[in-house]
Amino acid sequence: MGRRVGERVDGIAQAWLARPTTGTSVSKAELRLVRIVALCMAIALAILPAFLSLLLPASIALPAGTALVLAASLVCAVGGIALLRGCAREMADQAPAPRDPEDELALYDRFAGLVTVHDRSGQVLAVRGRDKAQFSDWMRPLAGRGFVDHIHVSDRILFLRALDSLRQGAGEQAVELRFERPTLSGEQTQFVYLRCDMTPHETPDGEMAVIVQTRDISAEVALRQDAAEKAAQAESANEAKRRFLAAVSHELRTPLNAILGFSDVLAGEYFGRLENDRQREYVGLIHQSGSHLLSVVNTMLDMSKIEAGRYEVVADPFEVRGVVKACEAMLKLQAENKGVQLTSRIARGLGELHADRRAVQQILINLVGNAIKFTGRGGLVTIDAETDGANIKFVVSDTGIGIAPEKLALLGQPFMQIESAYARNYEGTGLGLALVKGLVALHGGSLLVESRLGEGTVMTVSLPIDGSGISSPAEPDVALPAPVEFPPRLTVRVDGGRTAAPDEVALRQGGSAHGPHAKSA
Amino acid sequence: MPKQVMIVEDNELNMKLFRDLIEASGYGTIQTRNGLEALDLARKHKPDLILMDIQLPEVSGLEVTRWLKEDDELHKIPVIAVTAFAMKGDEERIRQGGCEAYVSKPISVPKFLETIRIYLGDA
């Protein structure tokens, strides 16, 4: 019953309503609105005049109520339809414009580089892009197979693979490809590096297409190659430096054996007495200088190992007292000769330290040696060892010349002795503190330098007691087998008419596969 | 007949130093600069002690030591490694290689002579 009334209302309304311009859905909403208004009018028409007749005389109430309801219904219907149409227009404005394929392609002309539309197999359907002229003059014919045919053969697979993953449903692909570009003469080709950003796309008729934006990245590739080359050069320069230091150190040690050995023989007077004290003194000086040279060589070797990340920390627990005492004993004579008093104070109950004993010894010897070197006659050098939380703290203090605040930052750089720029009053390479820094860092410890010019210097080294901060070598020395023939020699030997590289020689000497039979083969 | 010490050393000056010191101590010497030759000389002369440089041309001293130690006759001869590889861990490696003792270069003359006397049983 209601339905029939509704249809009737629709019939009347459709005759009255002006045809909307867009679609039929809005018209449906309008009809629904008209139906609701008609329903409300029917109910109000029954109630309102009756209600009014309670307040007013029936002769006035009935026509007035009917007129009121009719007027209100009319206003509601017209206002509602106007509102609905307003909304519909707004929605129509927001919806995408109807797509025209030609307009869309024209849009691509605003994008940098070359923009090509490809079909599923990679054939070019359309050529666009702001800079398409740069490509079309050599990538001929660009339409059809031209694009793919110009990709360098070994890179073509990359493009096809990317295309394939797009067909499989991948969202986007980017490939860097070499294209073959004919030279001006046309006889030869040269490579051009191009980057292709590939985006899948569905054509209005439901076909799959791929939009490829291609840009010339030759300059970028050149930069990249340049950077890689520079990095490789730096790496090889570093390697050469390491090899050089190692080889030089080793080559210096061998003659030092003769210098120290023969001077030792003379000083020991194994083959008869020396004639006078001056001769004995000179022999002693030769030996002393040789020993100094040896320590420089050793330090250099250690430094090069630390820098190359090849310094192997062999950590074991050991008594701190022993190391401090050994260092004191070793440098006592040197201190006495300079008129410097050397003392050590070891905290009661100071236990074991888990660290590389040789490294700790070297740290102390270098710090104490420095302290003695930069302290004048009558001065005092003290070694303190104590526990400080989870660390063991070694404090080497002197009453020497001190270091100016602005020079503190320079400390510990190889070959940098603070005073060396204008007056070399003190021998040394400046390697000592660099080595200390390196060794302390290998143990995860810290080095603190406090100093006041003219009053003295306090060097504090803290090392974790349990060895927890020890770092392992960056790259384990797998290349050189068991008896490490390190450092390699500078000399290059010729083996069967072939010049062997130094590291090959080192490997061969260290290798275990060369028995006497292998040799004779 | 004095006890014989074979010196395997490729550096001329070091060879001279060792030879002079050993001969001055009253021992005889057999000298070679070559590891391969060392094996033949050891078989021929049966020295009482061998001083072995580790870095030698062609074959390493450790290699020669291993052959010596694998030889039924020669394995009894003590081998003292004399080497400039004074780095950490070198001593263990050299001892593991079969050398009885290890002296690092540069040598300390008194210690060097003492070590030789000990291994010749004259200390």
TrEMBL record, chain A:
SMART domains: HATPase_c, HisKA
TM stretches of this protein: 33-54, 60-84
Keywords annotated in UniProt: ATP-binding, Cell membrane, Kinase, Membrane, Nucleotide-binding, Phosphoprotein, Transferase, Transmembrane, Transmembrane helix, Two-component regulatory system
A cellular-component GO term for this protein: plasma membrane
One term of GO molecular function: phosphorelay sensor kinase activity
One Pfam short name: HATPase_c
Residue ranges occupied by any Histidine kinase domain in the UniProt entry: 247-467
Entry keyword Transmembrane: yes
Domain of life of the source: Bacteria
Region Disordered, residue ranges: 494-521
Name recorded for this polypeptide: histidine kinase
Species whose genome carries this gene: Xaviernesmea oryzae
Record lineage: Bacteria, Pseudomonadati, Pseudomonadota, Alphaproteobacteria, Hyphomicrobiales
From TrEMBL, chain B:
Modified residues (4-aspartylphosphate): 53
Keywords for the protein's UniProt record, in alphabetical order: Phosphoprotein, Transcription, Transcription regulation
Gene Ontology biological process terms in this record: phosphorelay signal transduction system
Keyword Transcription: yes
Keyword Transcription: yes
Domain (Response regulatory): residue spans on this chain: 4-120
Gene3D superfamilies referenced in this protein's UniProt entry, alphabetically: 3.40.50.2300
Protein name from the UniProt record: Two-component system response regulator
